[in-house]
Request: fold
Amino acid sequence: MNRHDGHIHTPYCPHGSRDSLKSYVENAIFQGFAAISFMEHAPLPESFNDPAPTKDSAMTLHSLDNYLQDCERIKEEYQEHIKILTGLEVDYIAGYENETATFLNQWGPRLDDSILSVHFLTLDSRSYSCIDYSKDTFQTFLTEAGSLEKVYQCYYNTLIQAASADLGAYKPARLGHMTLIRKFQNAFPRKFSDTAMIENVLETVEKHGMSLDINGAGLYKPDCREVYPPKYVVETAKKRGIQLVYGSDAHTATAVGQGSGVISPWIHSDL
Reply:
């Protein structure tokens, strides 16, 4: 039996599908999962301007209470069949730590689980880029940074900031898809090694007692074709004693469990 899919999105995701919560749960049960975590993108800070061209990175604050209530209802409906955890994927945005901590202090008591992810990068704390939105937005940030290595350094340094940040008592305990910067690696091939950068992130994750989201979505991205993070990083994390939690990062009901056949032999995910 698959133990836990710890990263599933919902119809509340503006850039996802309209598949019902029930359809996600039913597919998880069909695949033999004992537990799932709904991890919808938390509302962005009100003063932050979503840099994604379509302005659809996260649910609105207006939708949040409905999302939490719907999760509670589906938990009760399926309590005899599967354990469902209510969660949020929270964006770490450099310079917005206070707003994020205030948000978590308000809503954290209603959460069972959460992930801290980096999607937005900045070079000057004034303008931000949604680094995984498209190859075009990646190229724009690359041009601004001056080199691909600097883009990677910016991303991994931001992950270190995220893991180190004081976001209060409800700070997410799990770091999301830590090699998301490789989403377009086949379109923008590296001529350098990012191993030392990854080691620095793992050291910080270990220091702060965080776990890692081992995310299957990258396997299905045509310019990535690997798990976020890949197996050798998973093995290094295991040696450090870092807890690993599989996540499909499903944005459709049919994507629940994606990559689990590859990842499950690597890790054992506890609740």
Remarks:
- Helices lie at 21-30, 61-77, 97-107, 135-145, 148-164, 195-207, 231-239, 260-263.
- The chain has one domain: 4-263.
